[in-house]
Write a structure and sequence with these properties.
With about 375 residues, the chain is an alpha/beta fold. Helix content is about 55%, strand content about 10%. The protein has 14 helices and eight strands. It has an eight-stranded parallel β-barrel, surrounded by six helices. Strand 6, helix 11 and strand 7 form a beta-alpha-beta unit. It is elongated and about 75 Å long.
């Protein structure tokens, strides 16, 4: 493999004799053993917390699988290293560890802090592994460096879910409003829907000019803020920034979520439309905080797109770490089918705003979601 290569000099007998003797690598092997142990232990704790954590805020099997995969890659690197060196554990000296018995990091404030602490440990241990391998076995340095950068990437993803994702907790009914489809006044309709249980509002106006769009967004910002609902702007990042919306919703052809975040800041909620499992799987690493799942059925707001069907609801849930909102002609007639397919969150447009009683329509759908959430919790897989 090329580990532990020593060059033997010529000309100086003493130098040749000294250089021909391999140095004592017991200490570096102890470093590698300890660093690998810390790394895999921290990865396992993170994985387990995301796999078995509290249903309401932590449990995230797709994200847990990413950490699990990284733990397995780390284990494979250790095994590859030990092909030449032999088991690193043979060099372990627990009794002689000078830091053994010193106080640890102390109690964790909550399970989110437990996850953050162990990701920090993994990051530090990965650097220790990489630097030791640079000396001990340079040909494997690239693999060690790749693990460290994967930790950076997964840390950013996990922190986004823990931090911004908490803003989405309990927000299962997402209202989409556009004036041309509203049966009544758009502002009164929005207020009524929020009173009926909608806790997120997306302003979607494809035909308004910028000035009129901004005015409408500012009006909805006031209505949503007064009622504790989130305001999301469809596509128009500059409008979202100017009206101080909570975030923006993007399509697959818009700028990337991480680019939108550079404009709106680290606390902005970024949504992303998805239409197949590949897009759902890629959404989290692209920087999104939630995904739209659909259109499940043919809909007036997505006339150009073929419905993906209810099977995609389950596929998206399995593939994506993020909350997913089933969208596309979800209303009082289709809600049961959508929930049966595995949806726990829905995005609704005409099913509320085109009804004579938007408050009652929202209330009906919200109650369905509440009942479904109770069943999901009892079954052990709400997200």
């Amino acid at each position: 493999m090329g580990c532990l290569v020593w060059e033997v000099g010529t000309g100086d007998p003493e130098a040749m004799e000294s250089a021909s003797q391999p140095p004592d690598h017991g200490s570096i092997e102890q470093v590698l053993d300890a660093a690998f142990n810390r790394l895999t232990e921290a990865l396992r704790v993170t994985e387990d917390q995301l796999r078995f954590g509290d249903l309401s805020e932590i449990a995230n099997p797709p994200l847990a699988r990413r950490w699990q995969q990284l733990r397995r890659v780390t284990g494979a690197l250790r095994q590859q290293l030990e092909v030449d060196s032999g088991p690193l554990s043979l060099h372990r000296n627990v009794e002689g560890d000078l830091l053994r018995g010193l106080p640890g990091s102390g109690p964790h404030g909550d399970r989110k802090q437990l996850i953050r602490t162990n990701i920090c440990r993994a990051r530090e241990a990965a650097r220790s592994v990489e630097e030791a391998i640079r000396y001990f076995c340079p040909p494997l340095c690239g693999e060690a460096e790749a693990i460290r950068y994967q930790i950076y990437q997964l840390e950013s993803l996990t922190e986004g879910i823990l931090h911004r994702g908490s803003k989405l907790d309990g927000r299962h009914l997402y209202l989409l409003v556009t004036e041309e489809l509203c049966l009544g006044d758009i502002l009164e309709t929005t207020a009524a829907a929020i009173e009926g249980g909608a806790s997120m509002v997306q302003l979607r106006e494809k035909s308004l000019g910028s000035a009129d769009f901004l005015q409408r967004a500012q009006q909805l910002r006031e209505i949503t803020a007064e009622r504790g609902a989130l305001l999301i702007i469809n596509d128009r990042i500059e409008i979202a920034r100017l009206c101080r919306a909570d975030g923006v919703h993007l399509g697959q052809q818009d700028i990337a979520p991480h680019q939108a975040r550079e404009i709106l800041g680290p606390d902005a909620i970024i949504g992303l439309s998805t239409h197949n499992p590949q897009q759902a799987s890629a959404a989290a690493l692209a920087g999104a905080d939630y995904i739209g799942v659909g259109p499940v059925f043919d809909t007036q707001t997505k006339k150009h797109r073929v419905a993906v069907g209810t099977n995609y609801i389950k596929e998206a849930r399995q593939q994506c770490e993020l909350p997913g909102y089933a969208i596309g002609h979800v209303d009082e007639e289709t809600i049961d089918e959508v929930l049966t397919a595995g949806a726990t969150r829905i995005a609704v447009c005409t099913g509320i705003i085109a009804r004579p009683d938007p408050r009652g329509a929202a209330q009906f759908l919200h109650q369905k979601l509440v009942e479904n959430a109770s069943r999901e919790v009892s079954d052990g897989h709400l997200r």
